[in-house]
Amino acid sequence: MLAQVMGVLNVTPDSFSDGGRWFDHRAAIAHGLDMAAQGADVVDVGGESTRPGARPVDEMEECRRVVPVVEALARRVRVSVDTSKPGVAKAAVAAGATLLNDVTATLGAVAADLGVGWVAMHMQGSPATMQACPSYADVVLEVRDYLEERAGAARAAGVAEVWIDPGIGFGKTPAHNLALLRHLRVLVDTGFPVLVGASRKSFLGRVAAGPAEPALGVGDRREASLAAATVALVNGAAMVRAHDVAPTVQAARIVGQPVAPAARGAGR
Ligand code: HH2
User: Fold this and answer.
1) Confidence (pTM)
2) pLDDT, mean of residues 60-79
3) Could you tell me the CATH superfamily of domain 4-255?
4) Domain ranges (residues) in the chain
5) Distance between start and end Cα atoms, the chain
6) Nearest Cα to Cα of residue 48 among 84, 12, 93
7) Does the beta carbon of 195 lie inside 6 Å of ligand 1?
8) Is 85 part of the annotated catalytic residue set?
9) Residues 122-180 pLDDT 10s
10) Which of 6, 241, 243, 245 to mutate to test the pocket of ligand 1 (most atoms within 8 A of CB)?
11) Could you confirm whether 90 is annotated as catalytic?
12) Which of 90, 114, 119, 202 is most buried, judging by how many CB atoms fall within 10 Å of its CB?
């Protein structure tokens, strides 16, 4: 089966890579439809930035940002809501969202109540402080154990569709992020489908520039994002979260294309 692509739609003034671009509802809906046309399986609508140091948004404002956008898009494409607030989750599901994308991994019971899918993401600390001093004895095993426990509890509570996500960039150094991408199979082996969101994240700008050059700015991380998505896909991710949907869909098709046994050894 081909891996899925989740297109990012930030209806925020301050997201790290596209803050303000889709803050207007009409622009957001048009961009969501555009991503669906490019092959996104899910459009992930968020109304609160989780970038390091981001300011929290109150529930009413977050609903005002996301609900009309969810409502318009859900008629045409599967919609997830990127929130950690139960009230926003409920309002978005009432408007048509069928997946809770939860960076705090705290909404499993809410997803069970609402009868929708749930993404449990790993984060060390909170957005305000998470990049201050991330530390793990073994990042891959700690992330796996945490997610397996959360996902198992949600499944036991009745959530039929549970995803796990290592939370690239959420309380992790570049070395932690690279270890999680490289050893993603350890998460895949839990049996829960794995979602990975590395798109445009700052460690890519640092790593891809090489040691002697300044880090790439957020607008120059498209190729590195595609490389990271490809690594995740090759290592078994069932969905990748991306700002640039069209090239990511191509990567998913190339990685996931079945190869007939007869083609082996038959040349290029
Ligand atoms: N990353 C971000 C937000 N939500 N959800 C999941 N499941 N996985 C992720 O890696 C992930 C996520 C951060 O990216 P973005 O939404 O572009 O930025 P911001 O939080 O500044 O709006």
Assistant:
1) 0.96
2) 98
3) Dihydropteroate synthase-like (3.20.20.20)
4) 4-255
5) 23
6) 12
7) yes
8) no
9) 999 888 777 778 889 999 999 999 999 999 999 999 999 999 999 999 999 999 999 99
10) 241
11) no
12) 119
Rounded to whole angstroms, the Cα distance separating 225 from 34 reads 19
For ligand 1, say whether the CB of 84 is within 6 Å of any of its atoms: no
By CB neighbour count within 10 A (0-12 exposed, 13-18 middle, 19+ buried), where does 243 fall?
buried
CB atoms within 10 A of CB 175: 12
Three-state SS string across the chain, please? CCCEEEEEEECCCCCCCCCCCCCCHHHHHHHHHHHHHCCCCEEEEECCCCCCCCCCCCHHHHHHHHHHHHHHHHCCCEEEEECCCHHHHHHHHHCCCCEEEECCCCCHHHHHHHCCEEEEECCCCCCCCCCCCCCCCCHHHHHHHHHHHHHHHHHHCCCCCEEEECCCCCCCCHHHHHHHHHCCHHHHCCCCCEEECCCCCHHHHHHHHCCCCCCCCHHHCHHHHHHHHHHHHHCCCCEEEECCHHHHHHHHHHHHCCCCHHHCCCCC
State how far the alpha carbon of 259 is from the alpha carbons of 191, 230, 254, 262, 266, in Å.
24, 18, 10, 8, 12
How far does residue 75's CA lie from ligand 1's centre (Å)?
Answer: 23
